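Look over this one:
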Amino acid sequence: MKRPHLVDCDITVVVRTCDDEERVGHVVARIIRHLRAQELSAEILVADEGSGDNTLAVAAMLKWSHPEIEFLHSEPNHGYSDACARARGRAIVLYDVRSDAPLGPLGFALERLRAGLDVVAVGGRYLVFRRTTSWRAFDALVQRRNQQLLERRFLRRARGLGLKCTVTHPRRRTPWTILRDTFRFPLVARP
């Protein structure tokens, strides 16, 4: 695998996809909106692992309004590793289009990287890591579609190389019955 080239953006989001034409457009647009709201310079690499449908055509429609999107054809199970070899961001996010994971914890994960960690795993949903220091763990990226297996394998390899890693689990939504009792004033006037 080639060594990484120069950094010219804050973050690279690698979106792995295969036969996901009904999801890919919505997911990529949501990622772009989130990154723009965070005011991060970003590139989005859509790594297609041999789709037989219109996955790349749907994603290509977003290219006109979002020039930060690039496309890449990969062999099955090699989308992440091929895209990481082309990544230009200081941090890399590995995101599977089928996971439909919320992007809220991404800001927390980036803060943990700024605090000195090398790899932050967001509880079975996606991985966020420094491109330069984590380069040696990239050989763990060739993996089946299961995101949790990929996360465990990558973390084991990164820890074995002496990288500082952590796993965080995003909070589940608070049930409405508990949240309702925390309001200062009742929402409905009682008779």
Remarks:
- The mean pLDDT is 78.
- Residues 38 and 107 are 8 Å apart (CA to CA).
- The chain is about 30% helix and 20% strand.
